[in-house]
Amino acid sequence: MKKKSFEHLLIWSGAFEIFFVGGIFYGWPALQFVLKEENVFAELCANSTASSNTNSKSQISCPEQDNRYNSIFVWGAMLSNCFGMVYGYILDNVGFLPCRLATSIPFSLGLALMVFYENRTIFTLGVELMAIGGIGVLLTNITIQPIWPKKTSTIGSIFSGVFDGSAGTILLLKLLYESGIQLKFLFIGLFALTAIQWWRTFFVLPAVRLPNPTPEGYDIRKETVFAKFTAKKSETKSDKEKEELELLDSEATSVEKIDKKRDFFKEIKSLKFILLAY
């Protein structure tokens, strides 16, 4: 792929990742509607005097249930902002790749746990992990702005905009749910979207943070984790081949020296035989 095309892939796949992955936690109000349809946390209404059935599907709602939903969202929003500082520290002091891993692992794990929403504890943990990892997706993508020095503000605006708009992903999930798709399959679909995180981490994004400003001739295609691994493997192979050649040359030299010694001793023996003959 050409350098400019790869840079476009880097930026627009980042926007796609942020929209469908990064900020979906903030679509919680739309998800809350779906969860109520599934009577998630409806058991909290068992002893409530203010519970009510709101539609033909016997959807149960009560203040205790709403309080639990609100509590999950508040904790998630708080953890998201707190971990923004943590990810910033990791970026500055540990490195870009460790930060991507620290983002992708909790996010992927969180969405995987949300599939088991029948277990309220596991589901709650999954939502909080999703909130923790989501902010890191935005922060790690923001660091690629210097790839186009004259358009850093444009790239930052695009990423910030799609992060705010990524709540629409959950709205799309709500529409799919209303069309008849089971919630479990929708959560599995969200989990499948995290594949783009891992693909970009190893094949598109640089292994280390972009220099700012980027030096002339900087080629981000050579800075990805996969490219560096391939180059290192190739370099190791070349070094190994070089060592083998040097070893063969050394062995050949040794054999040559041994042959010369043998020839020398043969000449001496021949000379001694001639002298004895006379």
Structural description of this entry:
By secondary structure, this protein is an all-alpha fold. It has 2 domains: 3-217, Growth Hormone, Chain: A (Up-down Bundle), CATH 1.20.1250; 224-278. Helices cover 73% and strands 1% of the residues. The chain has 10 helices and 2 strands; from the N terminus they run H-H-E-E-H-H-H-H-H-H-H-H. The chain has a two-stranded antiparallel sheet with strand order 1-2. A hairpin with a 6-residue loop joins strand 1 (52-53) and strand 2 (60-61). The model has no long low-confidence stretch (mean pLDDT 85).
Q: State the domain count.
A: 2
In what order do the strands lie side by side in the largest sheet? 1-2
What oligomeric state is this? single chain
CATH topology of the largest domain: Growth Hormone, Chain: A
Average of the residue pLDDT scores: 85
For the secondary structure, the number of strands is: 2
CATH class of the largest domain: Mainly Alpha
End-to-end distance = 83 Å
Uncertain segments of ≥5 residues (pLDDT<50)? none
